[in-house]
Design a protein that fits this description.
The complex is a heterodimer. Chain A is mainly α. Chain A has three helices and no strands. In chain A, α2 runs antiparallel to α3. By secondary structure, chain B is α+β, with helices and mostly antiparallel strands. A two-stranded antiparallel sheet of chain B has the order 1-2. Chain B has a two-stranded antiparallel sheet with strand order 3-4. In chain B, α1 runs antiparallel to α2. The radius of gyration of chain B is 22 Å and the shape is elongated. The chains are: A mainly alpha, B alpha+beta.
């Protein structure tokens, strides 16, 4: 009985596998999700402002805190974006 | 993802502000009704006060055989459990001509002491200010971290 010994071997990889899985924790993804969260907080503050002008708002501090949160989130996102941009420009400037 | 725990301090302060605001509202109600002798439920107005409880994410009832978590985490602020009525008896004043007087000529006035209410009002507004300060502090710390 003949056994094809080659069939038992693992297939040689013709070319190294390229990692195509998207890295969801990359710096730019972080900036994007930060932007999304900032947008959500801004929308929340907008909604509370509309509640205020239409008389539905019960507590003034809810609006103030929502807008503070939006401001802080925007500042955070801008900080992350600035860091990411600086890193990018640093890398692009390596060749020179 | 960004704001899950980031704003926990501010959220706690916000809940404290809401609770103290409600307390001030109730005290204002008490002061406004300090001389109310007739209510839909009958009898004079009864002093009201809120009962606060920590706002936690744990279930309110403990299931058997499940150990409560050992670690103590920073909570999620305060919430108003319910609003209770003061059970102390009403103040009786002798006013025979009053339409709400009983057969002996006494009128039942609410069990509200204005001095107590004013003190509670000041306490509540100071507590509100303390929450505002805590929230401002939390914000300043976050802004400070961005300067790194």
């Amino acid at each position: 009985m003949e056994v094809d010994l080659f069939s038992l071997l693992p297939e040689p990889s013709v070319q190294p596998k390229i990692e195509t899985k998207k890295d969801k924790n990359g710096l730019f993804d972080l900036v994007l999700s930060g932007l999304k969260e900032t947008n959500r907080l801004e929308n929340n503050a907008d909604k509370l402002t509309q509640d205020l002008v239409s008389g539905k708002l019960e507590n003034i501090h809810d609006l103030m805190i929502a807008s503070e949160k939006a401001e802080i989130a925007l500042n955070f996102t801008m900080a992350i974006r600035n860091q990411a941009l600086r890193a990018y420009q640093e890398i692009m400037g390596m060749g020179r | 993802m960004l704001t899950g725990r980031l704003f926990r301090g501010i959220d706690a302060s916000a809940s404290g502000m809401s609770a103290e605001k409600l307390r001030m509202d109730i005290i204002s109600e008490n002061i406004a009704n300090a001389n109310t002798t007739r209510t839909p439920e009958g009898g004079p107005y009864k002093r009201r006060f809120p009962i606060f409880t920590p706002r936690s994410q744990e279930p309110l009832f403990n299931l058997p055989f499940i150990k409560p978590p050992i670690t103590i985490e920073p909570g999620n602020g305060v919430r108003v459990l319910r609003i209770e009525e003061d059970k102390t008896p009403p103040k009786l004043k002798y006013e025979p001509g009053h339409p709400d007087a009983d057969e002996n000529g006494y009128v039942a006035y609410p069990n509200i002491n204005l001095a107590t209410e004013m003190i509670n009002l000041i306490t509540a507004s100071r507590a509100y200010e303390a929450n505002v300060t805590a929230a401002r502090n939390a914000k300043q710390i976050m802004m400070k971290a961005l300067e790194i």
